[in-house]
Specification:
Helix content: 10-25%
Largest sheet: 5 strands, antiparallel
Structural class: alpha+beta
Number of helices: 1
Shape: globular
Radius of gyration: 21 Å
Strand content: 35-45%
Order of helices and strands: HEEEEEEEEE
Distance between the termini: 50 Å
Low-confidence stretches: 3-23
Length: 118
């Protein structure tokens, strides 16, 4: 009888595991960039554990007609960051390596996607 209960419990646990949706994949760490604040001063923005394999248009600079691009990105995540000069991951692109990748003030960006390093 105990064997039946154990088997039933194991089957139930397995079924539960299969029905729980897998969590979305995320790059672990921080991605930082600088934007010009409303007062004209630089403002450092941080994305903490950003999603992987998804284009992220940076909200502060999403509209090219209303804002200057972000700049000076720092990739402190465990994945490659591909930054783009335009929203929706379009325009010129530049790859920042995991953990230590960075760009200067001359590297302008409006969107980014994180990709696992191979």
């Amino acid at each position: 009888m105990r064997l039946r209960h154990a088997a039933g419990a194991a089957f139930g646990a397995l079924t539960l595991l299969l029905t729980i949706p897998a969590s979305a994949s995320a790059a672990e760490g921080q991605f930082q960039y600088t934007v010009t604040g409303l007062d004209g001063h630089p403002l450092r923005v941080v994305l903490e554990d950003p999603p992987s394999e998804q284009c992220i248009t940076l909200p502060e600079v999403a509209d090219p007609s209303a804002s200057s691009p972000a700049h000076s990105p720092r990739n402190r995540t465990d994945e490659r960051a591909i930054v783009f000069s335009e929203p929706d991951c379009t325009g010129r692109e530049f790859v920042l390596r995991p953990h230590t990748g960075y760009g200067t003030e001359r590297l302008e960006l409006r969107s980014v996607v994180f990709v696992r390093a191979e």
